[in-house]
Amino acid sequence: MAVTELTDEYRAYFDEGRARALALGNRGPVRFIGGGALHPDIVEAYWRTGFYVFEGLINDQELADITDDFNDLRRRLPTHRGSATNHNGTTAFGSDLEARTVIWGKALADPVGSTSASHGRHPVKMVEPTPGADAPDEVIYVLQGTLQCSDAHLRLYGHPDLLGIAAALNGDDFTPFNEGIFIKDPGLGPSVAWHRDGVTHWDSPDWDQGTHGFNMMAQVYGCGPENGVWVVNGSHKQRKADISAMADEAGSDRLANAVPLVCAPGDVAIVNRQAIHGSFPNTSSEPRVTLNMGFHRRASVLGAMGSGIHGVVGELDEERIAKRSEMIGWAISARQQQYPDEEPFDYQPLRGQTFEWNEQARAEIRDYSLLDLSI
């Protein structure tokens, strides 16, 4: 599919960004050192840069399972915006749910930059190349609440190493945040304008570099500068940041000190939600499919008012946190059924409770993302 070529300036920016990213020293296999602690080199690199790439965390067997499951999920998505049916002629995922689950955008466009969307946290418009003549008018680029429609995503969510990372960085009583799948098809995938995810605690007296949690980004096909997420190195440490001024200084949407996530299939990146990050439209020939999983410190969530960007507005009290955290229990159970020889993760807040993943449980988690813990 032919698209308008990006300028030489963008190609140079992409090449330079890749080189800078690979020189940061914040990538490698997951390493625990006992008592559930991450290796101090990993912890130092994550807090220094605001992100870390765990290489090869998903093995080939599970990656094949995820890929097959995603291909099946695509056939269950609506044929067009507003459609209640999918390409199989049956009920499309999301069409019978209350929560917003399927997000559309124009090919290679910037759906949210310089708009009031998500509390106006995307102040800069990204470059918008012209898609090929045969491109569809709109494409699906984000799915939300995907643990209820993708068993492979649910099983990945229960991965003991992923949950171990969450416990090591956010405490044993960590909480969920939100899950979804980002789809950046080659020559079609829209951009996600530069932004910071957190909106609730910037002025809190106890704010620090980890207050708004982090997202895990599991890569199905890998990613690079052309189709992946970019992060402004170290920006998670800044209480205040003016993204518009940064773009003005750069003279474009090519922000200085930003580097791309460079990942192979099966790598999992964690990105601090306070870091300035975004992605360019995918003008490359390579797809990106990212399974997103977010986690918080309990202290950041308990008693806060949900932002409404994910889930519904309302107080994040003990009851809501406990109910939303049950998704971890269901995920651990589903994973144990698939991988019975693997030592399951012991999630502290659910100790003493029993979870058995079955069709009754599948019905129980319907529209679970309405309870997302968005801060």
Strand-helix topology:
Blueprint: H1 8-22, E1 27-28, H2 40-49, E2 51-54, H3 60-75, E3 102-106, H4 117-120, E4 138-144, H5 151-157, H6 160-170, E5 175-184, E6 192-195, E7 214-219, E8 229-232, H7 243-250, E9 258-260, E10 268-272, E11 277-279, E12 288-296, H8 298-301, H9 318-338, H10 359-364
Parallel strand pairs: 1-2
Antiparallel strand pairs: 2-10, 3-4, 4-5, 5-12, 6-11, 7-10, 7-12, 8-9, 8-11
Helix pairs in contact: 3-5, 5-9
Largest sheet geometry: 8 strands, mixed
| SSE order, one letter for each helix or strand | HEHEHEHEHHEEEEHEEEEHHH
How many β-strand stretches? Answer: 12
Measured as a percent range, the helix fraction is 25-40%
- Low-confidence residue ranges: none
- Rg over C-alpha atoms, rounded to the nearest angstrom: 20 Å
- How far is the N terminus from the C terminus? 39 Å
Query: How would you classify the helix and strand content by structural class?
Result: alpha+beta
Strand content: 15-25%
> What is the overall silhouette?
globular
The total tally of domains equals: 1
Broad CATH class: Mainly Beta
Discrete helix count: 10
As laid out across the biggest beta sheet, the strand order is 1-2-10-7-12-5-4-3
Quote the CATH topology: Jelly Rolls
The CATH homology group name: q2cbj1_9rhob like domain
The CATH architecture name reads Sandwich
Whole-number mean pLDDT? 94
